Amino acid sequence: MLYELTTLSCALLEQDIVSDGARRWVSDRDAAGTLLGSWRTEIGELAQIVVLRKFETMHELQGERERAYMATQPFHVTASHIRLDMESYALFPFLPEVQPATFGKFYELRRYWLKPGGVAPTIAAWEKTIAPAKAYTSHLVANMYALHGPPRIAHIWGFSSLEERMSLRAQHYSAGLWPPDGGPQQIEKATSTICLPEAWSPMC
């Protein structure tokens, strides 16, 4: 299973229009893939609509990517200043396939740009830590490594509140259960964005 993370960046007052365009695009009759979630950024870089989909094969993913490349209005974008980024990912091999579920009102999207050769040791570090830190990692929606561009990972978390997130992180840091031993040493750059589910998101 492969995953696509699409980010549409627009002006603040355009978010509703851009979100509706994305909704219609992924539900078009000729659209491929399975919609997993859609979010609107709330803390971090604002005015972004994020869409997560999964695909059974690379052929299916590439076909859907080609549909976007060849469209005059991909994701039904009607303004030339709106930025469209589409990223392809594979799930960390020990994690279960992502399914739509209810994780809470707040989602965190974290991206880590890694040092050259940093993907494999990062995956190994996470695999050793997932079970011992279960109280925290049970909130993990997905962790994926990029299939193109610079070495990097993207992980998505869901929480009922920001207080829950901060409390869990503090508990696991103090207990030495988090972060994964050997993981932070691979990071060159990291970003974190808090997002809210769109009304049409299967994941809420």
Structure characterization notes:
The chain is of the alpha+beta class and about 200 residues long. It folds into two domains: about 1-90, 2-Layer Sandwich (Alpha-Beta Plaits); about 100-195, Alpha-Beta Plaits, CATH 3.30.70.100. It contains five helices and eight strands, in the order E-H-E-E-H-E-E-H-H-E-E-H-E. An eight-stranded antiparallel beta barrel has the order 1-3-2-8-5-7-6-4. The longest helix is centred in the N-terminal third of the chain and has 13 residues, at about 60-70. The protein is globular and about 50 Å long.
Shape: globular
Give the uncertain stretches in residue-range form.
Answer: none
CATH topology-level name of the largest domain: Alpha-Beta Plaits
Main sheet makeup:
8 strands, antiparallel, barrel
Main β-sheet, spatial strand arrangement: 1-3-2-8-5-7-6-4
What is the H/E string?
EHEEHEEHHEEHE
CATH C-level label of the largest domain: Alpha Beta
What distance separates the N and C termini?
22 Å
Helicity, in percent? 25-40%
Number of domains: 2
**Mean pLDDT, rounded to whole units?**
97
CATH architecture of the largest domain: 2-Layer Sandwich
